[in-house]
Structure formats: C-alpha cells, structure tokens
Design brief:
about 280 residues; N-acetyltransferase; alpha+beta; GNAT_dom; acyltransferase activity, transferring groups other than amino-acyl groups; 13-stranded mixed sheet; Acyl_CoA_acyltransferase; about 25% strand; 721_t:CDS:1; globular; 2 domains
Amino acid sequence: MITSSISSIFSYKNPDDAKELVAKLSGTDKENRKWIAREVQNIDLQYYEKLLSDEVVVKYFGVERPWTNEKIRNRLKIWENRYNEGHPHGAFTIFDDQNKFIGYIVAGQGDEKGVSELAYVLSCEYWNKGIGQSVLSKIVEEWGPEVRRIGLGEGFENLDKQYQVIQKKFQCFDGEILKRFYATARPINISSWRILEKVGFESAKSDVENAEDPIDFNVKGFDLPLLDYCSQLESFIEELYKKQEIKVDKRYFMVNENDKIYTFSRMLDGRTRFHYEKEIN
C-alpha cells in the first residue's frame, strides 16, 4: 500500500482523511546493535501478552503485577484505534535487527492538556543494554519535537484543507499541542529514573504541596531498616504517610543529602512514585 509521508517519522496510508497513521523510529544500543520501533499493530498482541504476564518484568511497572489478557487486548485496541484515526499518541513496538521483539514504549496522553505521559517495558533479556535510554532519547529528541512541529503547522508549504486536518490530528493532547513529557518511576527502580534523568527529565514542579518547604531526607526522625539507599527512600516516604505528614495522591518535594530535589507521592494503593517532567523544545 502506498503511503504519504509527512515527515521522517510519520506517514499516512489514507492521507486524504489523515487516517491510518504509520510511525517509525530507529536507533542503536550501547554496543551499536540496531533496534527498530513502529506503531503498535493488532499482530503484536501475542508479544504483549507474554511480556506483561511476566512477574519479573512488571514488578516495577504500572500496577506492579501481571496484566490480564483482557486488559492487554483493551489497551492495545485503544492505541491501535488512535493510529487508525490518525493521531500520533500511542505505543511503539520495538524489535531488534533480526525482527525479534524487544518491548514497547508508550507516548500517550497525560492527565494535563498538552502533556504526553511516557512509559516503557522491555523483555528481561534486553535489560542493561542501553536500549531503554536509546529509545527514550529518540522519543524525547525526535518524536516529541516532530509531533509539536506538526501540531503547530510549522514546515508545511501551505495550510490547505488537507494539512489543516493533519495539524488538527496532532493537536491530540486533550485538544492541545504537545508541550511537555511526564513520567513516573518507583524509587527502588533506580535504572528507570536514572535513564529519565540522563535524557533530560527533572523532578516535576507542577502541583507540589510543599514547594517552599521540601522534606529533608536527612532529618529522618526514625530508624531506617538496613536496606539499600533507594529502598530507604521508599521506607521514609511510607513513614511520612503513617505519621500523617503527607497525604495520598499529593505531590511533595524531598531533598537528599546532596540537596537534590525529588518529587514524590504515595498513591492510594500503597505504591510510591517519583514524578518527572521535561519541556519540549
């Protein structure tokens, strides 16, 4: 089928109606092995079912327990429908250069206007190979700016009716142009939040309850268990909640011994999350 390209990343199978969007990205891991990512498709279901039923893989992701097949099918259908309708926010399925499934990354719609929430999951055999950072970098440095550019209508020779339709399709972040990325990570999932920081994410600054008075992690006020540093952070946050110093689903600043700011929350289901964001240039 002939597609109509609108950029190096995006093209349409049905350009007249700006539907059936095709998206492609590629890069290399830290050993220079190539990966390829494309828009999620129905044929990917078998890969996602296997990946998201793996207890080791999902331990630090989302609800931190295996997904049901029904939930996986429903989620893939949402992402697939967005591409079919011509919108860019959804999942990329990632393969190696031998067409072996690696995992996926989601650049979806966030809870705020103009915000895309990022999350990614890789098969265990591809951990610690630099793929997560490489894929995330491509999303942040190429996909995001391109989505924003098209949403603004920049680079189009003329804004005729067809390009106006395309431009509208890319203003899909609660009806607005993409302006910011958002992501969360458990404190004990150190590799995840370090990757976010390496690609330019900073602790989220929006909706923070104690912006003028960060909680000092050094003034703990109780004996921490003999755990690694990141586990201590989670234990500290849980103790704050038990002592009613923080509330559920509220964001707070915490400063560590090096004066580094973390934005964190304790969620209703007991999970602890760091919150990160990055503006799109």
